[in-house]
Amino acid sequence: MSGKQTPTVPADAAGIARAVEVLRAGGLVAIPTETVYGLAARADSEAAVARIFEAKGRPGFNPLIVHVTGVEQAAALAEMSPETRHYASQHWPGPVTLVLPRRADAALAPAVTAGLDTVAVRVPRHLVAQAVLAGLGVPLAAPSANRSGFVSPTTAAHVLETLDGRIDLVLDGGPSDAGIESTILKLRADGRWEQLRPGPEDTANWHDSHFVQGAPLPGEAIEAPGQLASHYSPGKPVRLAALVAAEDEFLIGFGVVEGDVTLSAGADLAEAARRLYACLHQAALSRLPRIAIAPVPEQGLGIAINDRLRRAAA
Questions:
Q1: Which ranges of 8-115 does DSSP label H, i.e. alpha helix?
Q2: Each residue of 223-249: pLDDT tens digit?
Q3: Residue 83 C-alpha from the chain's centroid
């Protein structure tokens, strides 16, 4: 579809039906979720999944998250013990992705898992995403709907900034609620869960004996999406922990640090997460060649926000 304009349709009954039709035929549709917009394709189609990697320019070693309707659909793709099912039911639907052992008979295109013996699955909370999944009846592979490495989209307009003409349809469900990608947890061999990526689900204060706080070190093998050291780039140099801006910098403020835009004037971390990518998109489109970002506390949702900011600045 290169060179053509991608149509955008509202996420009403007619739009959802059209999205399901495009997906069933092997097409690519950007759909809203509570985290960010996802670039969806049926996960059981090699040709459709290959189009995700082509449209995004995504490296083949980077696996995809599979979105499912619930625990039963997840259990057709992943090995799920009664304990795992119980754990999943506590977090789904919601912005939590679980990395589980892949079933040998899982109906998944090989590229979805990038050669790993695990699969990353989640049940989205967004009603539009749920309606699309229910209408299609097939799990959807759906990484963020943007060119690989660039700022994730939280609106339909953001999707078109990098994917216009490269995908078949955008389903406009309004701005994303959480604003950052899902928390990713991996089931370890000893039965405990390890955090691979911070996200909207704050695990900082978890003291459950079944959870171990952790994150892969730089240079370790990719086990799940969103682990690349350089990611979410606005295409300009980014300076973190800035209290004032230089003349050539677009300043993204937070709390008492005023900026050209602000993540949250009231220092509200949930608001900052919702606005993070929108502010980065504005900074990317500004005439100024550099970006400065005010300090965000490394606590609660701030852990996930700073994770994204460090990758954007890498």
A1: 13-24, 46-56, 71-75, 82-91, 110-113
A2: 777 666 667 789 999 999 999 999 999
A3: 26
Alpha helices, DSSP H, located in the chain: 13-24, 46-56, 71-75, 82-91, 110-113, 127-136, 156-163, 269-285, 301-313
Same domain as 80, residue 194: yes
What pLDDT shows up at residue 189? Answer: 86
- Same domain, yes or no, for 149 and 261? no
Residue found by looking up tokens 């999205």 in the block: 19
Amino acid at 305: I
Which residue bears the tokens 């625990």? 71
Report yes or no: 128 and 72 within 8 Å, Cβ to Cβ. no
What span, in angstroms and rounded, lies between the C-alpha atoms of 134 and 159?
23
Which positions of the chain have pLDDT values less than 70? 1-4, 204-205, 207-209, 213-222, 226-230
Domain count, the chain: 2
Beta bridge pairs of residue 197: 184
Domain presence at residue 221:
no
What is the domain-level CATH number for residue 166?
3.90.870.10
Q: What is the pLDDT of residue 61?
A: 86
Q: Are 27 and 169 in contact (CB under 8 A)?
A: yes
Terminal alpha carbon distance of the chain: 32
pLDDT of residue 60: 85
Nearest to 163 by CA among 59, 58, 62, 65: 58
- Residue 248 token pair: 């050539």
The C-alpha atoms of residue 113 and residue 184 are separated, in whole angstroms, by 15
The whole domain housing 265 covers: 238-313
* Cα gap 54→49, rounded to integer Å: 9
Q: Which residue's entry shows tokens 């699955």?
A: 121
The model's pTM = 0.90
Q: How far apart, in whole angstroms, are the C-alpha atoms of residue 110 and residue 66?
A: 12
Does 2 map to a domain?
no
Nearest CA among 76, 67, 69 for reference residue 37: 67
